[in-house]
């Protein structure tokens, strides 16, 4: 009975997580994320009691890492590469890593030529 149920897990597992928002992550990505979270804290021989203790330690360490990241973010500054107010807004709102990603995208698009291709009523078509 248990083997049959386990073999059908791809059908019943989604029912348990259907109300959980996963930001477009696949089940494999979520599993890898959980493995990384517990890496160094638990192993195959960890008892349930030890798991609870290690889980608390893992959470404590995660919170501390987040605090350190927040501190580093608040105490560092990456200059803007343009004069666009949009970039300044992102600089103030994003983490350093996300702001760098945004800047890379901005660099890629900043040198694009844009011209109006076609106008039809309120619809505008541009060529980049």
TrEMBL record:
Gene Ontology BP, a term: regulation of DNA-templated transcription
Family annotation (InterPro entries): FHY3/FAR1
GO cellular-component term (any): nucleus
A GO molecular-function descriptor: zinc ion binding
Keyword Zinc tagged: yes
Primary location group: nucleus
Subcellular location: Nucleus
Keyword Cell wall biogenesis/degradation: no
Keywords: Metal-binding, Nucleus, Zinc, Zinc-finger
PANTHER family to which the protein is assigned, alphabetical: PROTEIN FAR1-RELATED SEQUENCE, PROTEIN FAR1-RELATED SEQUENCE 10-RELATED
Family in the record: Belongs to the FHY3/FAR1 family.
General function of this protein: Putative transcription activator involved in regulating light control of development.
Protein name per Swiss-Prot or TrEMBL: Protein FAR1-RELATED SEQUENCE
Organism: Dipteronia dyeriana
């Amino acid at each position: 009975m248990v083997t049959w149920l386990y073999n059908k897990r791809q059908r019943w597992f989604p029912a348990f997580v259907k109300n959980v928002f996963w930001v477009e992550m696949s089940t494999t990505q979520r599993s890898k994320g959980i493995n990384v979270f517990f890496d160094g804290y638990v192993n195959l021989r960890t008892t349930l009691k030890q798991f609870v203790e290690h889980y608390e330690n893992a959470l404590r360490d995660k919170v501390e890492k987040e605090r350190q990241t927040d501190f580093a973010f608040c105490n560092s500054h990456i200059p803007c590469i343009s004069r666009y107010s949009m970039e300044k807004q992102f600089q103030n709102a994003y983490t350093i890593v996300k702001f760098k990603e945004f800047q890379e995208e901005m660099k890629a698009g900043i040198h694009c030529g844009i011209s109006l291709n076609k106008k039809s009523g309120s619809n505008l078509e541009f060529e980049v």
